[in-house]
Request: fold
Amino acid sequence: MMINKEILKKQIIYRSSHRGTKEMDILLENFVKKNIDRFNNDDLLDLEKLLFVDDEILYRWYYAKKSSKIIPDNKVSKLLKNFKL
Reply:
């Protein structure tokens, strides 16, 4: 599948900083800014999928360390799980 990497990156940056909850805006925006230029196409697609997960699920997974079947186990999610602000 052909993707326009720059358009995808812009969409990811926007989505990461317009979540709905301030905590997730801060966490995801900082994570994306730090890592986005290191990600390959597959990583970007994985990140995009992760950003469509509901804030409440991401919040519990990240902050309360609750496991979730909804969050895939991949390079991007592992990086996020270990990301510190």
